[in-house]
Write a structure and sequence with these properties.
It contains one helix and no strands. By secondary structure, it is mostly helical.
């Protein structure tokens, strides 16, 4: 019985060692596939972070442009207001002065144009005969 037990235990040991080796080999394959997946994931995460940084930089740049644009618009509004105020001041000063007579144009050396008038020609009636003098000869 001792030899049968030894034989059985050696078979069990071989089977277990074979299984352990296959599991170890499988675990190595699993480990490699996990490492590959981890590197792919790391690349994707790095790409995502890079895109997020770009988007954030773009957002800050746009915000700066808007801030500059708003400042410029405010300056333009101030300029328009100052122009309106200047115009109002000019109008007020002009309205407070007495009106100046407009100068008369002088036609030096040019003939004065004469207004053309139409002379109405007498219309002959269509039904009336034309009168001629018979005894004038």
């Amino acid at each position: 019985m001792k030899s049968a037990t030894k034989k059985l235990s050696s078979e069990i040991a071989e089977t277990l060692s074979g299984k352990i080796e296959s599991i170890a080999a499988g675990s190595k394959k699993i480990k490699k596939s996990i490492e590959k997946a981890a590197t792919k994931l790391a690349k994707k995460v790095a790409k995502f972070e890079k895109e997020a940084i770009k988007a954030q930089a773009k957002a800050t740049k746009d915000a700066e442009k808007k801030a500059k644009g708003k400042g410029k618009k405010d300056e333009d509004k101030d300029k328009k207001k100052s122009k309106k105020e200047k115009l109002a001041a000019l109008v007020a000063s002009a309205s407070s002065k007495p009106p100046v007579a407009t100068p008369v144009k002088v036609n030096a050396g040019r003939p004065v144009p004469v207004a053309k008038t139409k002379v109405a020609a007498p219309k002959a009636a269509a039904n009336e005969p034309v009168k001629t003098e018979e005894g004038a000869e």
